Amino acid sequence: MALEKWQDNNVLHEAGAMVQSLEIILSGSVEVSIGKHSILLGAGFVLGMTEEPGKEYRFTYMAKGDVTTYSYTYTKRDDLEKLLHVNQKIAPTITSAIIKGSMELYRLDEKIASEAKECYNSLMEEKKSYPLLCQEAGEKMQDFPELDGIKAPAAFGQVMHWQSAFFAKLESCDDILRKIYETGSDMCSGFAYAAADYIDNIRGELVAYHDYLQELSRQSAAFSMHLSSLKSKKMAIEQGEDASMPSMEHLMDRILMYAGVDPQEAQEFKALMASYKKFSDRGASTDELRNLRRKISKGFYPIYEGAFLHYMTDAAVPPEVQMFLTFGVMDETLLKEEQLRRLYGYAVAHRKDPMDRILTIPEWLEKIYRLEVDPSRNEFDLDYPSYLRECRTNGEIDEYEEEVLLNDREHRLHFEISNLLTLGNRMTFGRISSFFPVMDDVNVLTPLDRGYMSTEKVREAFDEVRSSDYTIFCRNDIYSNPEQNVTQIPIHREVLPYVILMPNVGSRCVLWQEIEGKKRTSPGRMLMPIFQTADLADSVMKLCGEFRWEMCKTEQGVHWNDLSDPSLTAEYSDYLQFFKKNSNLSGDYKERVKRQLQKMNNNFKNVFVSDYLSYMKFERKGALRLNKVTREILFKYCPFTGESLGILGSNPQYEQLIGRHKNHQNQAKRPIIVTIKRFDKEQIPRPKELMDEITYLER
Prior knowledge:
By secondary structure, this protein is an alpha+beta fold. Helices cover 54% and strands 12% of the residues.
């Protein structure tokens, strides 16, 4: 036992030293800290209660101002009771200070826990925005595998809610409790021991959160440093101080030379562009401008094809060529300096989609050129083999030429550029009469950073649809295993579509084709402008609605509107055709359907897409907008899952529909469960296809 005096900033105990004593603070205040976090404990508190005897100090204790303490040996918890009995006169003050100190420690625990969660969420947001930041700064993305192992801070749960509420009440009733403490040291010991247990729980949780923050900082250090550098560079670009972008002068000449364009044709194209640039209002819809834009468009695609063929053999593609192929940038004078810098940043920082489903147009054409996928259908809905067959039938080519051209890389590429790129670019632009294939500031109707369709942004939009309409891209298939006596079990396979980003600033998304050739389990092909001016979420929902309709028509064939073979298109067509006789619709709803049909020019598909948008945008969130008949058809063929199902589960309009859907899923599961049980009994490994189908049916 000893009386000790400490001056300001003297360290009483440092983290890492051995715990051997308890000290009553007789006067002054002591700062208790762990890392950068600290609390201040005043007279009466017993230092050492926040630690385990015989273990290392987890906190550092420093005097704040002049401090006087009286120390006692601390080898076990019972030493606290001895301390209170020896100091019976001040035991009530000590007990009161212990209660108050425990709550100070709890508030510190809450603060560190909140900081741990905020730091984790902030890191995840930065990780999510990292690809876009790289594009804006014009830097290539780096890999940080150490980030993959980071998990959200656990809810350790060592501090019970009732404990916190109880000790908070004790702290607030200190004046009343003083009289109870004064009844004797035994009463004080009871409260002090309860507080000691509470402090032990707090310490365990607080230290765990502190260690989590330390590890989080260590694992994210390299990423955070890189992120800071990118943000500085982005700011420099925005302020016009960054000089990393190469000169873009004489860009058109460089593109024409790279594409190997004939000098005479190059001069003619440059003359057309010069005439175009003379117009003060390049976005006008005059006949003269429309004719000029049409001529430039006609000359643009042969240049694009030549540049792409060179690109396929070039080991070091210049960034300006990448900008031309991806965005249609061809003349630096048509864009502002800031726009050029941003486009340059997007071009050099772009990374391919790891799932190989969301592709820029040069990435897509590369797949065509390398024979990885067949060319898309042309404007007459003919795929590439059918087109060649028609050419042979018309006498344009013979059978041998047909066979050679089928796998001729350059001919396949020419077919794709002449059809999907030429027509798709125009369609996704949205304003067909004023379409212009070269990137021009007059067509940039929304800031580039807001409209840029990064791979991540597009995937999130489609995932949002799939999170509710989980069957959207699932195709019917058959599982068969004759060796294990399994003939046919219907299953579903998810086949995600290709989303091809067209080189323009546009407002429209297009479903080019729902399958490839005649294979029904092949991915569809959807087109989007790489800079979107319309709302992305709405555009993707409409696109998915159109896909639903066209995929059903393809699967049903000539029976797509035959009610004797029930399907989405058959039931919807019947509903729209005979809505006036439908007893489930009130007069008001019949009038609404009539107006809707008039607005859509009696196009059943467009009516369905409009209803699907309302279904996905409002109904899944509990805001009912559809009539009973529409709702029943949509939920039957496009059932909700996840959060949407939870929201609608108690809604009277959906209760029966959900119950019917669950019964149907349970019936579909039975033969699969019987087969799996037989496999288990015979010790045969469970087929992945059947386990995936169980997961699908349980959603």
